[in-house]
Amino acid sequence: MGGAIEEPIDSSDRPFDGLRSASPILRGSVMAELSPGHELERAEEYGRALLNILEDFTGERARAGETQKAILNILEDLDDEKAKMEAANLELRRSNAELEQFAYVASHDLQEPLRMISSYTQLLESRYKDQLDEKAKRYIFYAVDGATRMQGLISDLLLYSRVGSHPRPLLRIDSHAALGEAIRNLGAAIAESHALVTNGDLPLVHADRVQLAQVFQNLIGNAIKFRGALSPRVHVTARREGATWQFCVRDNGIGIEPRHFERIFVIFQRLHSRDEYPGTGIGLALCRRIVDRHGGRIWLESEPGKGSAFFFTLQAA
Ligand SMILES: Nc1ncnc2c1ncn2[C@@H]1O[C@H](COP(=O)(O)OP(=O)(O)O)[C@@H](O)[C@H]1O
Ligand SMILES: [Mg+2]
Description:
The chain is an alpha+beta fold and 317 residues long. The chain has helices at residues 24-128, 134-165, 175-185, 187-193, 209-225, 283-293, and strands spanning 171-174, 196-199, 204-207, 233-241, 244-251, 298-302, 308-315.
């Protein structure tokens, strides 16, 4: 064994090592001869690479599995939230319906006793006016006045409660005709205040004509009622915004401070005493309910002393 170093005969382990010094031609021919072993090695390399890829792939799959689990968890949470929201919605609809029913029954049933109060106090006044002194007459006047006011309040409340409880279908209607109806209903107030009500081109919309007239009537009625020193000027316009029309009722009245913009749409909320300006505080709440029911929005722009502009949207027809 005399320390001789044996060259490996089969050098398939390191096929090129033994050929490093060989001429390119020799190398070429040997390589051709070695090629089956070389292919094997290459196949092994490919195999390893493939295994690596597979490993990566498995890793990715595990990660994807985790992501999927996380998404499923989120979806489950969402389902929970959805169920909670649906329950809350149902509860809200139920309590709204109850409130509507209550407002309807209360206002309807209150009308009758109220009619009795006002007709009997009026009877008292007319039958016994010779026997009554000034003080008694004044008391009777207050009683009749209170009963009349309450009748107004109740009929407004009835209107309000009926917005959603007796819905008519939304039809293709002419908003100009609805404005005409509102202006006719406001005839006395317009004449008395020398108001000038004008309008631009008004479109066909998808709406309940009676309710749209109520919206115009309340907004124009307010525009006339909350007037300043100038005689009232009200201008009604509409502008197309995609699938909706944006209406605007603009006045030259006393204006409103921005901090009250939300409050005035709440039922019974008023910014003035009844002595300054009469009213029940239902008008704008009614407008909002009607516009809501139509799937629209109502809001305003105003500044004290600079008039107000009330906007609302309706679906184009
Ligand atoms: N055009 C307007 N100009 C100034 N203030 C207004 C106008 N419209 C409404 N307001 C304010 O909003 C309040 C609520 O209006 P509304 O609900 O119609 O009730 P009401 O007319 O019975 O007072 C009013 O009391 C008034 O203070
Ligand atoms: Mg009003």
